[in-house]
Every structure is written in structure tokens, then in C-alpha cells.
Specification:
This protein has about 325 residues and is an alpha+beta fold. It has eight helices and seven strands; from the N terminus they run H-H-H-H-H-H-H-E-E-E-E-E-H-E-E. Strands 1, 2, 3, 4, 5, 6 and 7 form a seven-stranded antiparallel beta sheet that branches. The chain is globular. It starts with 6 loop residues before the first helix and ends in a 6-residue tail after the last strand.
Length: about 325
């Protein structure tokens, strides 16, 4: 639109927009009220949404082309529900590994000679439940989960029958909940961590802890670094590491996250350090791959070698 519209026309357009916005807000409020009517509080709503999202993920994984016909969703559900509901288990958790090792071959083939599909599927349900509970404990939200609503969501997700909220809306709720949780936990973690005598906090908010001082070159932003590293979330979960493969990573500092850029320039060849990186210096409000939005990250880095930048002549 140009600036020559008469003020009366502009007023009319603004009024129309306000009416449309008001209608949208009213519709959103009505949807919110409809959703909240199914739950007594936010914990119940979040618990159901997490259950629905996880249940649907399990449905997709264990009915895919790779797993189709190998597992029973009914028995996976039973294992999940029994574990989460603190019911008597049909299979001991100590027997899970041996059951799955007998049932599953190295290349994904199954052998029902000694273990039935029912038992293997139930064991898978136990594994999924343990993983879910472990994530709650790691995030410090295990006491906030409302188990009846969590189980109901899992059942609805596995059976693809969302009864209280759509799957899309549930995923939005879970993403928003975890994002805010990551932000709060990260801020608390960094605040407490900064009190350690061995931790140096820079102006940017990066926290640097030297483990072993190096004696070689100190890189700058245009140099290439060869490193071994392990990346963790603040609850200790490892999301990436070069150590198991024994294959170091090589990169130019200009091509990595700001926390790495700053932290590695504080190191020398042969040294090792731990970087505590706030989300603003890592993957920000959007995250990346396995790294969720607002995630504070911890990296153990060993600087093996610095390759100095050589400008082309």
C-alpha cells in the first residue's frame, strides 16, 4: 500500500484488521478453553501431550517397513503401561537384555525359537518406558508428571486416537514446554556452575574450565583445529563424541558455534578444557538435530593440533 491512502480508508482497514484479530483471538481462546476442560491443571495437560507424542512415535517406529510383523503393538503398550503404572511386571527388567538378544539378530532378523513375539514386544515396552522415565529424571520433571494422563496419552498415541487434543497441538505443547524447561534449567545450571573456583565466565556468558594447559599454538578465528570432543546436555546425556571412533574432528573456527569459537581461542595445542555454553552461544532458540531449543551444552575438548591459516598469494 502507498502513503497516499486517505486517513479514513486507513482507519477502515485498521478496524477490519482489529475485528479479524479479535475473532482469531476469540477462536484461539475457545480452543484453549475446550482443551483445558479435559484437564484439571497444566501438569495433566503436558503429561497427556508427552504421552500422546511418545505413543505416536512408537506406533510409527514399530509399524514401519523395517519392523512390520516383528513386534506386537498391543504387547509393547502393555509393557509401557505396566512399568509406568507400577504394576506387577510379566517380565523382570533384568531379563530384558537376554530376551531381546535371543529374539533379535545382528541384522534385524527375528528368531522366535526361544522367545515369543509377545515377550519380545513386552520387553520393548519396558525399554521404552525406562527411556521415558530416564528423560523425566534427567530433566528434573519426574515429580511433575501425572501418570494417569501420561498413560492415557500413550495409549491414544499408539492407537492413533487422540481423544483430548490433536497430535499437532500436542507436539506444539511439548516443544514449548521443553523449550521453557531447557531455558530455566540452563540458567540455573550456569548460575550454580559459575560459583566454582575453577570456572572462568567470560563477558559473553561462556564458562571455561581448563583441565590441562597446552604448550603449543593458540588458534585464532581463521585457523583450523583438530580436536577430540564429547558433547553433553547438562543432565549428562551424551549427544555426540569423537572418542569412540578415535577419529578426531577437523574444522575452521569460523564455521562452528560461537561458544566453540571463543572457547578454543582460550586453549593451546595439547591442552584440554570443558566449555559450558549457554544456548545463545550454541544453537539458540531453534536448536539443531538432537539438540532442543534453548539447550545449554557442555563440551569436553582436547585440542590436538592447530593448522595456521595461510592466505593465498
Amino acid at each position: 500500500m502507498t502513503r497516499i491512502f486517505l486517513s479514513i480508508l486507513l482507519f477502515g482497514l485498521l478496524s477490519a484488521c482489529n475485528d479479524e484479530n479479535s475473532q482469531n483471538i476469540q477462536e484461539q481462546n475457545q480452543d484453549t478453553l475446550k482443551e483445558l476442560s479435559h484437564f484439571n491443571n497444566d501438569d495433566e495437560k503436558v503429561s497427556y501431550c508427552i504421552g500422546l507424542d511418545n505413543g505416536n512415535a512408537i506406533l510409527n517406529v514399530y509399524s514401519s517397513e523395517q519392523t512390520k510383523g516383528k513386534f506386537s503393538l498391543v504387547d509393547i503398550e502393555a509393557g509401557l503401561v505396566d512399568y509406568l503404572g507400577d504394576e506387577d511386571l510379566k517380565i523382570s527388567v533384568h531379563a530384558i537384555d537376554s530376551i531381546l538378544n535371543l529374539y533379535l539378530g545382528d541384522e534385524g532378523q527375528v528368531d522366535a525359537t526361544h522367545v515369543s513375539m509377545q515377550d519380545a514386544s513386552y520387553a520393548i515396552g519396558l525399554v521404552e518406558a525406562q527411556t521415558l522415565v530416564g528423560s523425566f529424571v534427567g530433566r528434573g520433571i519426574d515429580q511433575q508428571m501425572e501418570i494417569p494422563q501420561l498413560i492415557e496419552g500413550i495409549r491414544d498415541g499408539i492407537n492413533n486416537e487422540p481423544n483430548k487434543i490433536s497430535l499437532l497441538k500436542a507436539r506444539q505443547e511439548v516443544a514449548a514446554y521443553y523449550s521453557e524447561m531447557n531455558r530455566i534449567m540452563g540458567e540455573s545450571f550456569l548460575s550454580n556452575n559459575a560459583k566454582k573456583a575453577t570456572v572462568q565466565t567470560t563477558k559473553s556468558g561462556l564458562q571455561f574450565e581448563q583441565i590441562m594447559e597446552g604448550t603449543g599454538r593458540q588458534p585464532n578465528l581463521t585457523d583450523t583445529c583438530i580436536v577430540h570432543y564429547t558433547g553433553r546436555f547438562i543432565d549428562g546425556r551424551v549427544f555426540e563424541s569423537t572418542v569412540p571412533s578415535q577419529q578426531p574432528a577437523q574444522f575452521t573456527l569460523m564455521n562452528v558455534i560461537p561458544g566453540w569459537q571463543e572457547g578454543l581461542q582460550l586453549m593451546k595445542e595439547g591442552g584440554s578444557a570443558r566449555l559450558y555454553i549457554p544456548y545463545q552461544l550454541a544453537y539458540g532458540e531453534k536448536g539443531s538435530g538432537p539438540i532442543e531449543p534453548f539447550s545449554t551444552l557442555v563440551f569436553d575438548i582436547e585440542l590436538l593440533r592447530v593448522l595456521k591459516f595461510k592466505p593465498q598469494k
